[in-house]
């Protein structure tokens, strides 16, 4: 399954969308279920590689219509954001390609902790950490406003991520992380200042504010450690 490709882990995958798509698609052996993509280069790479290899391409948007009714019912019952519903359709197309009948009861516990998880009425968690994840959150959460609990690794495009999230963010609380991969706080603060975003250090939860905890698995994990004491 090839999920939506964007710039991420460039040190390992490549500097451009074209290079990243090529790296990921070259891992395909027989067939690829390709989720709807934001970058046309992904489809171009898939078609190019298909000509020189023997693998089959299954594009989700051309094969998901028969599952729309089931996906809509599950999304309504589980209060899924649009991007999670899209992921559900990808899974259904993949099951069909594997010869497994898609049944509603398979997805009665389809929630995935860490993707727009409501920890408390005023606390949302999401482990997304690239620009596509940020765009998906804005679409799902606007016009609501949040205090963003955040930190980032050095190799993430946090300037672009924060710029996208700005639409739904009132202020930022930086969550300290002890990891050599984490960006220097001074540099992160300068980035926030350049965007005109107010920031402080995260110390506690204010029950009068709404929080979005976002940045990576490490950020969410650390927040849960602090939150649960």
Detailed description of the structure:
The chain has helices spanning 10-13, 17-25, 40-52, 68-78, 82-97, 131-141, 158-165, 185-194, 217-228, and strands at residues 31-34, 56-59, 117-120, 123-126, 146-150, 169-174, 199-201, 211-214. By secondary structure, it is of the alpha/beta class. The model has no long low-confidence stretch (mean pLDDT 89). A 6-stranded mixed beta sheet has the order 3-4-8-5-6-7, sandwiched between helices. A two-stranded parallel sheet has the order 1-2. Helix content is 41%, strand content 15%. The protein is globular. Helix 2 (17-25) crosses helix 3 (40-52), helix 4 crosses helix 5 (82-97) and helix 6 (131-141) runs parallel beside helix 7 (158-165). The chain starts with 9 loop residues before the first helix and ends with a helix.
Largest sheet, order of strands side by side?
Answer: 3-4-8-5-6-7
The structural class is alpha/beta
Percent helix: 40-55%
Main beta-sheet annotation: 6 strands, mixed
In terms of DSSP E residues, the strand content is 5-15%
What overall geometry do the principal axes of the alpha carbons give?
globular
Helix tally equals: 9
Number of strands: 8
Radius of gyration: 19 Å
- What string, H for helix and E for strand, traces the elements in order? HHEHEHHEEHEHEHEEH
- CA-CA gap between termini: 38 Å
Low-confidence stretches at least 5 residues in length (pLDDT < 50)? none
Mean pLDDT: 89
Question: What key attributes describe this structure?
Answer:
single chain, 229 residues, alpha/beta, six-stranded mixed beta sheet, two-stranded parallel ribbon, 15% strand
């Amino acid at each position: 399954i090839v999920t939506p490709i964007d710039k991420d882990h460039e040190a390992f995958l490549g500097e451009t969308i074209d290079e990243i798509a090529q790296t990921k698609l070259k891992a395909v052996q027989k067939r690829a279920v390709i989720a709807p993509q934001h970058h046309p280069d992904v489809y171009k790479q898939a078609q190019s590689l298909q000509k020189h290899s023997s693998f089959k391409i299954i594009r989700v948007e051309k094969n998901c219509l028969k599952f729309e009714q089931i996906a809509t019912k599950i999304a309504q019952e589980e209060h899924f954001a649009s991007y999670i519903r899209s992921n559900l359709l990808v899974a259904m197309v993949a099951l069909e390609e594997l010869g497994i009948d898609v049944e509603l009861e398979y997805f009665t516990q389809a929630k995935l902790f860490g993707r727009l998880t409501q920890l408390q009425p005023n606390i949302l968690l999401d482990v997304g950490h690239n620009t596509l994840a940020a765009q998906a959150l804005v679409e799902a959460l606007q016009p609501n406003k949040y205090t963003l609990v955040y930190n980032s690794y050095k190799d993430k495009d946090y300037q672009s991520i924060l710029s996208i999230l700005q639409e739904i963010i009132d202020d930022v609380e930086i969550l300290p992380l002890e990891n050599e991969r984490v960006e220097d706080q001074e540099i992160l603060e300068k980035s926030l200042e350049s965007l005109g975003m107010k920031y402080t250090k995260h110390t506690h939860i204010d029950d009068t504010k709404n929080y979005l905890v976002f940045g990576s698995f490490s950020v969410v994990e650390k927040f849960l450690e602090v939150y649960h004491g």
